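Morning run. Coffee first, then this:
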Amino acid sequence: MGAYIPPGWPAGVHPPGSEDFESTAIGWLLDVVPPDYRLHGVLRRYPVALATLARYHSKACVEGARQGYRTARTELAGTLPPHAIDTVLAAYRKEGARLAATAEAVDLVERALRGEVFTPKMSLPPTAPERQSAGPEGTEPERTEPGGAGPEAAEQGSARAKAEQKAAAPRAAKATTAEQKAGGARAGARRNSAGRGRSDLART
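And here it is:
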């Protein structure tokens, strides 16, 4: 059974632990870095050092592409026509994706050169979303008002009710007194009217 190769592993590099892994990794890493790096024999003798340099170089390329993409419209406005700027941005997007994939592959190769063993990750089966129970025989769950019901809410409601009753009592008393006064005034008016009527009858 061959060694496990993780997703993103570069094409042309043999699996980790195989006989030609190190030599193919060196050749691929030298293609990632600038050509002048081939002049340094120490990098061939110590592939981990070459992988480290390649990691920094590839990440710098990704960051440079991102920065260029962010500032392309501002820097090229007035120099290139709008459709040409759109084409430049498309090139940035395409090459940026390639550079990001290369940086990921360099990271994997460096980890393998440092002795890391890759193993497949087990994926858990998707679980269905939980559904809220409707209660026995399809009845809906009880609804509570915002604030929640409970001992504290009940005590607060009782206290508010008592306060409202106390505040309403003086108003009710005043209303009753006013009604009584109005009723007495009306009764007195009727008595006076009746008295005047009897006096008028007596004079006739």
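Confidence is low (pLDDT under 50) at residues 131-156, 193-204. Good start to the day.
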